[in-house]
Amino acid sequence: MQILTKDASITLYNMGFDEAYHNVNDGALQETLHKHILPALALKKESQTLNVLDICFGLGFNALSLQYAIKKFGFNGRVNVDSPEINGELLNTLRNHPYPKELECAGEVIDILQHKQEYHKENFHLFLHLGDAREILKEFLDAIKTGKREKFNVIFQDPFSPFKNHHLWTFEYFKTLYVLSSNDVIVTTYSHNSCMLYSAFLAGFYSFKLVQKNVRDSIIFMKVKEIPKELLQTLDFAEKIVAINIENKIKANPNLKGLYD
Question: What is the pLDDT, as a whole number, of residue 215?
């Protein structure tokens, strides 16, 4: 079922998870750009390579918007995107999806992915992995251990919500992300769920709230307690970024528990 969102972009409703792929009040495109793409590019604009883990492919907004943004903002490095997706049939329905004009490449990308699950154009490389994300991440772990792939320095943590897709928000899951990611990784997500934040903290991540005008607040995870001040100056699209003190949350709510497998 198609849903018109606030910015006039179209998302879909997933009957299996009983949830829309995007927040209707933020807008599918604006949510994608402001909660994932812009924070990642702002904090990684000096990187020569972006190794991106996109959890999960869904309608492809994250990957397609990243391709759009690197052109618009002149990122000249190499971009590698690995995106798991459990619903193999979904891709067949996206060829005629009414993507916004900014994602004009969508038809070409979806068509190629349908045939070989890989898309390459200039400095942008997209790999679609069909199957359960947790199992696919195990394969990535093995490849990293044997030196066959590099660690991820950008992660779009964008599955359905913790209440709908529990196993992609647990302590064990975040621990896997921690091992898969570089020391300077940026993890972006829309969820503010306190149990999820606690799980990520136990796995080694520190959380920050990103406050913006155009969309609801979002979350950034990093492996450092403080985002370097020089990097904060690059977040010109945001009003402020605030560290979340998980220890205080735990003291204030002794019954707070993390999410576990």
Answer: 93
Residues 6+ apart with CB under 8 A from 88: 130
* Angle subtended by helix axes 133-145 and 171-180, to nearest 10: 30
Residue 146 CB partners (closer than 8 Å, separation 6+):
none
First to last CA, the chain: 31
Which are the contacts of 151, defined by CB distance < 8 A and separation ≥ 6?
51, 144, 180, 181, 182, 185
Strands 181-189 and 152-157: parallel
Least confident of 21-25, 125-129, 226-230: 226-230
Cα separation of 162 and 143, whole Å?
28
**Is residue 240 very low, low, confident or very high in pLDDT (cuts 50, 70, 90)?**
confident
- CA atoms within 13 Å, Cβ hemisphere of 53: 27
Give the relative orientation of helices 194-202 and 171-180 as an angle to the nearest 10 degrees.
50
Sheet holding 152-157, edge to edge: 118-121, 124-130, 78-85, 49-55, 152-157, 181-189, 218-222, 206-211, 240-243
Secondary structure letter of residue 205 according to DSSP? -
Cα(50)–Cα(36) distance, rounded to whole angstroms? 13
**Reported pTM:** 0.96
Strands (E) across the chain are located at: 2-4, 10-14, 19-20, 49-55, 78-85, 118-121, 124-130, 152-157, 181-189, 206-211, 218-222, 240-243
CA 257 to chain centre: 24
The three-class DSSP label of residue 23 is coil
Secondary structure tally for the chain: helices H, strands E = 10, 12
Under the banding of pLDDT at 50, 70 and 90, the label for residue 34 is: very high
